[in-house]
Amino acid sequence: MCKRFLLAAFLPMLCVSFAGAQVTPPAVRPPAPAGNAPAAAPPAAGLGTLEQQASYAIGLDFAKRLKSDDAPIDLDAICRGIRAGLSGTKPELTDEQMSAVMQKFITALQAKRAEADKRAMEVAKKEGAAFLAENAKKPGVKQTASGLQYKVLKAGTGATPKATDVVKVHYTGKLLNGETFDSSLKRGLPSEFPANRVIPGWVEALQLMKVGDKWELYIPSDLAYGDDGNERIPPASLLKFEVELLDIVK
After folding, report:
1. Is 56 an annotated catalytic residue?
2. DSSP states of 224-241 as a string?
3. Active site annotation includes 171
4. N or C: which end of the chain has fewer CB within 10 A?
C-alpha cells in the first residue's frame, strides 16, 4: 500500500526541483572471477561517461517509480519540465498553478485507485465464496457456524487451549492463489502467542484443537484481515493455513 502514496510525495518534488529526487543505487556486484569468465559488457552508446550513466540511472529509477504507481504521464511534458528546471529558463507554470494541478492530479489518481480497489475486493470476495462452497464438499473438510473450514491432517491427544492460554505453533499461511505470505517453518522457529491475540479464525480454531493436532484451515476474509488487508495480504482475501499445535506454554 505504501506505493500508493509515493507518487503524491515524489511528483511535486520533481516539479519543484529534479535534484531532490532520490535514486536507489544499483546493487554492487562482486568482481568476476579470473580465468574463462566473460569480460564485462562495454557501456551502451551514449553512456560512456560517469555523468551519462548516472543521469540514465536517475531517469530509469524515476520511471520505475512512476510505472509502479500506474500514473498517467506525458513523457514529453516531463522532459520539458526537467529541461526548464535544469536550464533555469522561465517555467511554463507558476508555483501556484503547479500546486493546483498536482492537487487535482493526485485526487484523480486516488479516485481511480479507490475504484480499482473496490473492484478487486469484489472479485476477491466472489472467488473466496466460490472456493469455500466447493471446498465444503471435499472429504474430511468440516465447517463451523462462523464459516471457518478446517481439515484434520494429524490428530493429537493433548489438551485443548483456552482463549487466554499461550500456545506454541508451527504454521504456513497462503493466499488463495497459493502464494506463501508467512511461515514459521521457513524461519525455523515456532511461534508463541496468546490464543486470543490473533485473527478470529485462528482464535476459534485453536480452541477446537488439541496439542499434537495438525490442521489445514480455510479462513474467510471476515474472519481474517477483512477489507483492510495488510502489507502482505490483499483486502478481502481468503486465507489458507497449515497449523500444528505443538504445546500450551505454562
Report:
1. no
2. TTTTT--SSS-TT--EEE
3. yes
4. C
What pLDDT sits at residue 25?
36
Active site residue 218: no
**Can you tell me the distance from the alpha carbon of 227 to that of 219, in angstroms, rounded to the nearest whole number?**
14
Taking the complete model, does pTM exceed 0.70, yes or no?
Answer: no
Active site residue 182: yes
Residues 6 or more apart whose CB falls under 8 angstroms from that of 188 comprise none
Q: Which residues contact 71 (CB under 8 A, 6 or more apart)?
A: 7, 11, 109
Note if 241 is an active site residue: yes
Rounded Cα distance, 131 and 178, in Å: 13
pLDDT lower than 70: segments of the chain: 1-42
181 annotated active-site:
yes
CB of 206 within 8 A of CB of 167? yes
Number of Cβ within a 10 Å radius of residue 173: 21
Active-site residue, selected from the candidate residues 82, 105, 199, 222: 199
Segments in 88-196 forming alpha helices (H): 95-135, 184-187
